[in-house]
Write a structure and sequence with these properties.
Blueprint lengths: L4 E3 L9 E3 L26 H5 L12 H6 L13 H14 L3 H14 L1 H10 L1 H8 L3 H7 L1 H4 L6 E4 L6 H5 L9 E5 L16 H14 L6 E7 L5 H4 L14 H18 L4 E4 L4 H11 L5 E3 H21 L8 E4 L3 H16 L4 H5 L2 E5 L2 E2 L24 H8 L3 E4 L9 H10 L4 E4 L11 H7 L5 E4 L6 E3 L2 E3 L2 E2 L6 H11 L6 H13 L3 H5 L10 H18 L11 H8 L14
Parallel strand pairs: 3-5, 4-5, 4-6, 6-7, 8-9, 8-11, 11-12, 12-13, 13-16
Antiparallel strand pairs: 1-2, 9-10, 14-15
C-alpha cells in the first residue's frame, strides 16, 4: 500500500498521523516509499517529533532526516540501525530482576518509540508476550496506580454520562477500527480491579499488532469506569479510578448503551471486543449487542476457539472422534459456557444432534456438579445442567462421569490434584488435561504435575506459559492455550473485509485453522499449539479463514479478493521504520 496523503486530525494539534489514501477501504500499513520533501508545515520537528511515539525513531533518524526535521544536535551523532536499538532494549530488559520491572520498561518504550516496541515483541514473542500479557499483566493491573506513568487509551467514567461522543472525539487517531473495552470487574482470575483494568485492553491491543499486524492506529483501549467494590483500591491513595461503589443494573446498562452508541457515531463500523466483564454482565451484553453492532466477547468466544483447537490437536494423537468425547469443565462461567457451546458445534459437525452433543459436556461449579435438579441455576448454565444425582466435588465427578478431557477455567489453583490426574490416567490412555486459568498463580496444575502424575501420558495445555519438562528420558514441550492465537487473527480478518458482524462460525473457522497449523513434530513433543514464533503466520491464515466466512455469510463490505491470504499479509504492520527524508533506513 502506498502512502499518498499525510494529515493530522483536526482535534490533535500538532500530533502527526500518517494515513494512506485507501484507509477508508482497508488498513493502514507501513509506508512503502519515503515521504518527499519539503514536509508539510504541521509535520512535527525537533523535540516535538522525538516526543511523538508514533513517529519517533530515536537514534535511527538518518542524516538527511536530522537535517530536514531539526534534529541535528538533539541526538547522538551515530545513526543506529533498528536492529541495534532492539539489541539495546534486550540488554536492558534481560538485566532486570523482576517481570514487573520488565513490564514497566516495555511500557516506557511503547510511550517513547512505538515502532521499536513492536519490533522487540515481534522478534522475541516467547520472551515478551508473557510480560506484556499473561501472566505479568495481572500483576501490572493490581499495581497499576503505583506504576502509572503516562495515559494510554480512553478512560470513560460514570461521571462522563452524556459526553461520550465528545470524549471519543478526543482520541487522536480517527482511523481506529478495533476497541477492546473492559469495566474491570473480573480481571483474569483476580477479580474487581476497577479502572486498573485498563492494562488488559492495552495488552490485548498490543497483541493485535504484534501477533496479527493490526496497525497501532487502528487500536483503541477503553476502560468503562463504573466504580469498584474492591475495598483495598477504594482505600488506596494512588488508585486511578472513581472512588465509588460499582454501578449495577439499569445504571450500568445505560453507561454501556451510551458507550456503544458513541463508539459507532465516532468510529462507524468499529469492532468492539468486550473483555473481562463479570459473568452476570458478560453473557447479557453479548446477547444484547451481537446482532446490532460488530462485537464479540473474547472471554466467551476467543477462549472457546483456542480450547477447541487444542482438542482438535489432541484428537490427532488419540485417534478418536470428536463425537466420542466427554468433557468436564471445572468452572461454569463465561469460559466454560463458551467452550461448551463451541464443542457442541464441533460434535454436531461430527454427526451428533445438538441434544446428544450437549449431554457430553458437563460443568462443576462451587456447589458441585451442575445438574438439572438444582434450583436457581443461572441462565447460561441451564443447557449443561443434565439429569443426574448430585455430585459434590470435582474428583468425584471425574470418577462418576469418566471424562476424556478435563478443562480448568474456574481460576481456583491446584484443583487438578494428583488424585484427579491419576484418575484421568486410569480412565484414558492419553488423558486430555487443560489447565487454562491464568495468571499462573490461578492455574489448576503445573505442566510438571500433569506429566508426572500421568506417567508422561497427559495431553496438556495451560493458560500461562510453562517450561519444557524432562521425564523418564523424554522432553515434553507444553504450549499455552492462550487466546492470543485466536483473537488477533479474528480481528485482522473482520477489520480487513469490513465485516458488519462477528459470528460463531468465524470462531469455528479460527479453531480449525489453528489446529491445522500444528505440525506432526509439534504433536510428537507434546505441543498442541504451534510455536509462538509462528503466531503471525498463523494469524494471517486465521484472518483469511474468518474473512472467507464473512464473505460467505454476506457480511463483508469489500469485493471478494482473488487471494484472501495474500490480502491479509499485505495489511500486516511490522514495526519497521518509515523513511521521512529519502533513502532506506
Amino acid at each position: 500500500m502506498r502512502l499518498r496523503d499525510i494529515r493530522v486530525p483536526t482535534n490533535a494539534g500538532a500530533r502527526a498521523t500518517l494515513i494512506s489514501s485507501s484507509a477508508e477501504q482497508s488498513m493502514t500499513t507501513k509506508p512503502r516509499q519515503p515521504l518527499s520533501l519539503p514536509l508539510p508545515a504541521w509535520f512535527p520537528r525537533g523535540t516535538a517529533l522525538l516526543h511523538d511515539p508514533t513517529l519517533n525513531k530515536g537514534t535511527a533518524f538518518t542524516d538527511p532526516e536530522r537535517d530536514a526535521l531539526g534534529l541535528r544536535g538533539l541526538l547522538p551523532p551515530h545513526v543506529a540501525r533498528q536492529e541495534d536499538q532492539v539489541g539495546r532494549v534486550l540488554e536492558n530488559f534481560r538485566r532486570l530482576d523482576s517481570d514487573l520491572s520488565r513490564y514497566i520498561l516495555l511500557e516506557s518504550l511503547h510511550d517513547r518509540n512505538e515502532a521499536l516496541f513492536f519490533r522487540v515483541i515481534i522478534e522475541n514473542p516467547d520472551e515478551m508476550m508473557p510480560i506484556i500479557y499473561t501472566p505479568t499483566v495481572g500483576q501490572a493491573c493490581q499495581q497499576f496506580g503505583h506504576i502509572y506513568r503516562r495515559a494510554r487509551g480512553l478512560f470513560i467514567s460514570a461521571a462522563d454520562r452524556g459526553r461520550m461522543v465528545e470524549i471519543m472525539r478526543n482520541w487522536p487517531h480517527r482511523e481506529a477500527r478495533m476497541i477492546v473495552v473492559t469495566d474491570g470487574e473480573r480481571i483474569l482470575g483476580l477479580g474487581d480491579l476497577g479502572a486498573n483494568g485498563i492494562g488488559i485492553p492495552i495488552g490485548k491491543l498490543a497483541l493485535y499488532t504484534a501477533c496479527a499486524g493490526l496497525h497501532p492506529r487502528h487500536c483503541l483501549p477503553v476502560v468503562l469506569d463504573a466504580g469498584t467494590n474492591n475495598e483495598s483500591l477504594l482505600a488506596d491513595s494512588l488508585y486511578i479510578g472513581l472512588r465509588q461503589r460499582r454501578l449495577t443494573g439499569a445504571a450500568l446498562d445505560e453507561l454501556v448503551d451510551e458507550f456503544v452508541d458513541a463508539a459507532q457515531q465516532s468510529f462507524p463500523g468499529i469492532v468492539i471486543q468486550f473483555e473481562d466483564f463479570a459473568n452476570h454482565n458478560a453473557f447479557r451484553l453479548l446477547r444484547k449487542y451481537r446482532d446490532k453492532v460488530c462485537c464479540f466477547n473474547d472471554d466467551i468466544q476467543g477462549t472457546a476457539a483456542v480450547t477447541v483447537a487444542g482438542i482438535f490437536s489432541a484428537l490427532r494423537v488419540t485417534g478418536r472422534r470428536m463425537a466420542e468425547q466427554t468433557f468436564l469443565c471445572l468452572g461454569a462461567g463465561e469460559a466454560a459456557t463458551g467452550i461448551s457451546d463451541l464443542l457442541v458445534a464441533a460434535m454436531v459437525g461430527d454427526g451428533l444432534d445438538q441434544a446428544a452433543a450437549r449431554r457430553r459436556c458437563w460443568m462443576v461449579d462451587s456447589k458441585g456438579l451442575v445438574v438439572a435438579e438444582r434450583k436457581e441455576l443461572a441462565e447460561h448454565k441451564r443447557p449443561y445442567a443434565h439429569p443426574h444425582a448430585p455430585v459434590g466435588s470435582f474428583p468425584d465427578a471425574v470418577n462418576v462421569l469418566r471424562p476424556t478431557a478435563i478443562i480448568g477455567v474456574g481460576a481456583t489453583p491446584q484443583t487438578f490434584t494428583q488424585q484427579v490426574i491419576e484418575a484421568m490416567a486410569r480412565i484414558n490412555d492419553r488423558p486430555i488435561i487443560f489447565a487454562l486459568s491464568n495468571p499462573t498463580s490461578k492455574s489448576e496444575c503445573t505442566a510438571e504435575q500433569a506429566y508426572a502424575w500421568s506417567a508422561g501420558r497427559a495431553l496438556f495445555a495451560s493458560g500461562s506459559p510453562y517450561d519444557p519438562v524432562e521425564l523418564n528420558g523424554r522432553r515434553h514441550v507444553p504450549r499455552q492455550g492462550n487466546n492470543s492465537y485466536i483473537f488477533p487473527g479474528v480481528g485482522l480478518g473482520v477489520v480487513t473485509v469490513r465485516s458488519t458482524r462477528v459470528t460463531d462460525p468465524m470462531f469455528m473457522a479460527a479453531a480449525r485453522t489453528l489446529a491445522e497449523s500444528v505440525t506432526a513434530d509439534d504433536l510428537a513433543q507434546g505441543s498442541l499449539y504451534p510455536a509462538l514464533s509462528r503466531v503471525r503466520e498463523v494469524s494471517a491464515r486465521i484472518a483469511a479463514a474468518v474473512g472467507a466466512v464473512a464473505i460467505r455469510e454476506g457480511l463483508a463490505e469489500i469485493d471478494p479478493p482473488a487471494d484472501l491470504h495474500e490480502l491479509m499479509l499485505q495489511q500486516m504492520y511490522d514495526g519497521r521504520y518509515a523513511s521521512f527524508a529519502g533513502g532506506a533506513d
